Amino acid sequence: MFRVSGFGVRGSGFELQAAPNSQLETPNSKLPVRMVVPPDEPMTEAHRRAVDAILDRHRRDPGALLAILQDVQDVANYVPRPWIEAVCEALGIPHGRAWRMATFFKAFSLRPRGRHVCTVCTGTACHVRGAPRLVDKMRRDFGVGPGETTPDMELTLETVNCVGACALAPLVILDGEYHGNVTSAGLGKVVKEIRP
Fold first, then answer.
1. In sequence order, what E strands does the chain have?
2. Percent of the chain, pLDDT > 90?
3. Structure pTM?
4. Burial class (CB in 10 A: 0-12, 13-18, 19+), 75
5. Phi-psi group of 132: left, alpha or beta (phi > 0 → left; psi -120 to 50 → alpha; rest → beta)
6. Angle at 104 between CA 71 and CA 121, to 5 degrees
7. Fewer Cβ neighbours under 10 Å: the N or C end of the chain?
8. Region 67-84 average pLDDT
9. Closest of 87, 44, 160 to residue 79, by C-alpha
10. Are the beta carbons of 33 and 24 closer than 8 angstroms?
11. Is the peptide bond between 170 and the residue preceding it cis, with omega within 30 degrees of 0?
């Protein structure tokens, strides 16, 4: 977290100025390495260490619950139930608070996702320009529909209502990389590059 007293203008850019007698605070620890966490697997020692590292990264602050859950998902590739319970117990907060947050935000997945995530935007502009054909292509070629993962846990297909990049419609996000003006043939080619 940054505590900032104001912006100062020097030359052509902006400069952050720290509040008097304070230090700029940033998380100084890195996230644990991504791990494979089967659904409803009990907490292992490696999982506990990962959760502790995430909690320490956020100074075990209950106010950082959203960021903690995001880091959990970054490490486990979804938000496992035992991890949520461990986070809540460590922070001393009710389990319902974390579950409300994890189920409210569509960005969180409560089911295991594949190693690669393909997100198809289905907003109005993308829908009109062919998003349904892209979803059908994924179903035909890879056997996954929206919200599904291939049996080998390699690929998950997700849909979102809009990502705000309508000029690139239809838009596909593959492992965080945006691909605009995607055709069915182009989608198959891009996905096959990561999953032969």
1. 4-10, 13-18, 116-121, 148-149, 155-160, 172-174, 177-179
2. 70
3. 0.72
4. buried
5. alpha
6. 85
7. C
8. 95
9. 87
10. no
11. yes
CA distance 84 to 188: 36
Phi, psi values for residue 150, rounded to 5°: -65, 150
Query: Could you give phi then psi for residue 95, rounded to 5 degrees?
Result: -60, -35
What is the rounded CA–CA span in Å between residue 34 and residue 136?
30
The pLDDT score that the predictor gives to residue 8 is 34
Q: How far apart are CA 27 and CA 164, in angstroms?
A: 29
Output the six-digit token pair for 98: 């974390």
Where is 131: in which H helix or E strand? Answer: helix 131-142
Count of other CB atoms within 10 angstroms of residue 133: 15
pLDDT of residue 28: 55
Half-sphere exposure of residue 158: CA atoms within 13 angstroms, side-chain side: 21
* Alpha-carbon dihedral angle through residues 64, 70, 72, 73, given to the nearest 10 degrees: 170
Q: How far is CA 146 from the centre of its chain?
A: 16
